[in-house]
Amino acid sequence: MSFLSHFRAEELGQFLTLVQQSLRVRRHVDLFKWLQGDVQLFLPHGVMIAAWGDFSLGPSWFDVVSPLPGARTDRLCETEVSPFLKRLFDHWLSLGRHPYAIELKDEMFSPPPHTTGGLKECVREMSSALVHGIKDERGRHDCLYVVLGTEVLMNPASREALEVLLPYVDTALRQVTPLPGKHTAKSEAAEASLDLDGLGLSPREREILDWVRNGKTNQEIGMILDISAFTVKNHLRRIFQKLNVMNRAQAVATFEKLARTVRT
């Protein structure tokens, strides 16, 4: 790709270091330092919004990484940010899943007119945005990344940079446990459905089963929860025993059947 072919030896070394650093991200503070560190050399930005979930229903989770005082995840309002992010995601799909740049004054990007709190702070003093995503065909757990910054993001080179960097950004994010309270009402409802009496599942087992329901592999679940794939496998074995099933598909089907029974 031309983004890499233009690098000098020193820049290539910096990029390889950046890639290696992404594999060591484990905490939210690590993610913040990484994005505000060497990533800025290749993709200068002030705010990054990450959202993930089934976008046909609206994103279930979102997070903001920014040094700006008011740009914080816990200040985002779901009723404002969820339709806003879904609109950007749908436009990304319409472009064949290619990254795109957009000026914040563009009507398609504009947040709701009465936007307050975190979303307003995210766009304050920003003039443009880059949008790219990752479509999860297997688990319907899609990811959208919105990078906010100055007019430099409108350059084709910035789109190329985001396209090359995004797999590493996504890997880093998947290794970080979401901060408490950083999910929408949809995910809260999903978690509430897991908290059913009589199943005998521990909180960790319910958490793992929820990720299984979202199509995640043992290795992916281990990265998300910061445990080994072997530990995930052991938890699943106990889940199968408690639900009296033989495999993951049966566990999900049995759980959802029991959940419907409890709700009715």
TrEMBL record:
Keywords: DNA-binding, Transcription, Transcription regulation. GO terms for molecular function: DNA binding. CDD domains: LuxR_C_like. Pfam families: GerE. One of its GO terms (biological process) is regulation of DNA-templated transcription. SMART domains: HTH_LUXR. InterPro entries: Sig_transdc_resp-reg_C-effctor, Tscrpt_reg_EpsA, Tscrpt_reg_LuxR_C, WH-like_DNA-bd_sf. Residues 194-259 form the HTH luxR-type domain. This is DNA-binding response regulator. It comes from Pandoraea terrae.
